[in-house]
Design brief:
Layout lengths: L17 H20 L3 E2 L5 E3 H9 L3 H4 L4 E3 L5 E4 L4 H10 L9 E10 L11 E10 L4 H17 L5 E7 L6 H12 L8 H9 L10 H7 L11 H16 L4 E3 L11 E13 L8 E12 L3 H4 L7 E7 H10 L12 E5 L2 H16 L4 E3 L6 H11 L3 E5 L1 H6 L1 E6 L5 E5 L3 H9 L2
Helix pairs in contact: 1-5, 2-4, 5-9
This protein binds adenosine monophosphate.
Length: about 425
């Protein structure tokens, strides 16, 4: 009887409390700003889509679809999935709304929550946020470079200093089958030395083994044939052009010949952006570099067609917002929290409480931040709070002032007090705080 129930957030999910909102809001505002400058239009797609959209788009043999997708059956027997990534939903929308008929390129961006049934650990959640940029209708590597540049700019604006961009090309339908065959031939005699997951990946899609983080698989990978040595002429030229664009923009990039990314739809360019920091380790080990993946993306020239549209080249990427927020905090790059109040409004008695509600709204309209303790009655408590908030002025609205139609403005550092007309108080405050 009466057993206490204790509800918690589901595993791997978290609340974003008021004190953390400003960080997210800062990121959204910055992203909106950069997107606007570079001509990207904001799009919002549903949090759930037809599960088949991801099975087909993201790929049935990817970890995301195979292991991490939250699927649900509705009362009407539709099989939907909580979106594990943005791209397929945005491609669906591009096709559904006939955006191909508009002048290309179509540049879209979005941000919001995604869901993946992962093993929760530091920086890895089951509900997390991404910022996502996509460009449709352009073949040119210039657009791939621009997407990379945009994410780099966003991270730089947030004051990240040690960023590194890893790029690679994974070819297209012309050259990839050949590379896959070469990789299979290399892996076949080494199969038994791979981890259990990679033995399965080898059968389903040998490229996936290149993604594995297990040490023994990485050792095998280090001798594997490299994509860039086996690209067709078109992909080779595209990759060369990308590197030239990156050189031109002075972005710090490396070529990672084994970067494939875990999704099926990529063609040609793939890339990731990492934040690097050195961890002071024991003397024997010296300094160890810790890398955090913040952004991942690439070109996906076949996806629009695969999802029922025409042959439209496209490119895009996404950044993990929780990772960014976590690192900002860790590196103490957290910007100043919410705007602090300049004014405190103290009230005494019921009548002045009532007047205070309207007065606060007058200050909001004038864009002057006012703090208050409407629930408190004692002037001493209210002034103590004003002191704590370090406001420059406190307004005191007592019974007498309400009846006279006046209000007291107290300068907190000197204790000087003026009485002014209640109707003019916003103007009087403006004069004092020089707004
Ligand atoms: P992806 O969509 O897997 O290419 O990931 C792009 C970025 O999203 C990564 O570099 C991470 O910063 C972030 N990310 C991916 N999965 C998670 C997760 N489960 N929890 C938090 N952030 C994630």
């Amino acid at each position: 009887m009466n057993k206490k129930v204790k509800f918690q957030t589901p595993t791997g999910m978290h609340d974003i409390l008021p004190e953390d909102q400003f960080l997210y809001e800062k990121i959204w505002a910055l992203v909106d700003d950069v997107a606007k400058f570079y001509g990207f239009g904001k799009i919002m797609t549903p949090i759930v889509e037809d599960a088949a959209l991801y099975e087909r788009g993201t790929g049935g043999t990817t970890d995301i679809v195979e292991k991490q997708m939250y699927t649900l059956k509705t009362k009407g027997d539709d099989v939907l999935a909580l979106r594990p990534e943005f791209t397929p939903g945005i491609v669906r929308s591009y096709i559904q709304h006939g955006m191909i008929a508009l002048p290309q390129p179509i540049k879209l961006y979005t941000y919001g929550p995604l869901f993946r049934y992962e093993h929760p650990q530091a920086g890895r959640f089951r509900q997390f946020h991404q910022v996502d940029f996509e460009v449709f209708g352009e073949q040119s590597a210039a657009l791939d470079a621009q997407i990379i540049q945009i994410f780099y700019i966003i991270l730089k604006e947030l004051k990240f200093s040690h960023l590194i961009i890893e790029v690679n090309s994974i070819g297209d339908n012309q050259c990839r089958p050949y590379y896959k065959k070469m990789l299979s031939n290399y892996l076949r005699p080494r199969q038994t030395s791979l981890c259990a997951d990679c033995r399965r990946r080898f059968r389903e899609n040998p490229l996936r083994t290149l993604d594995c983080k297990e040490e023994k698989c990485q050792r095998i990978r280090s001798q594997a044939p490299q994509f860039i040595d086996h690209l067709c002429e078109e992909c080779k030229n595209h990759f060369k052009a990308l590197l030239e664009f990156l050189d031109e923009t002075d972005l710090p990039y490396h070529l990672d010949p084994y970067l494939v990314r875990g999704l099926d739809y990529y063609t040609k360019t793939v890339f990731e952006i990492f934040s690097e920091k050195t961890m002071e380790q024991t003397k024997e080990k010296g300094e160890v570099l810790q890398r955090n993946a913040l952004v991942g993306g690439g070109r996906y020239d076949g996806l629009v067609r695969l999802l029922g549209g025409k042959d439209v080249p496209a490119s895009g990427a996404a950044a993990g917002v929780e990772r960014i927020v976590g690192l900002l905090r860790e590196m103490q790059l957290v910007p100043k929290s919410e705007p602090t109040a300049e004014i405190f409004l103290a009230q005494l008695g019921d009548l002045s409480k009532k007047k205070s509600l309207k007065l606060l709204e007058d200050f909001r309209k004038a864009k002057i931040q006012v703090a208050e303790s409407l629930g408190r009655d004692s002037l001493r408590t209210q002034l103590a709070r004003a002191d704590k908030l370090k406001v420059a002025y406190t307004l005191i609205l007592g019974q007498k002032e309400v009846l006279d139609g006046t209000i007291v403005i107290r300068k907190m550092d000197t204790g000087e007090q003026d009485t002014v007309k209640l109707a003019n108080v916003v103007e009087e405050v403006k004069k004092r705080i020089k707004k």
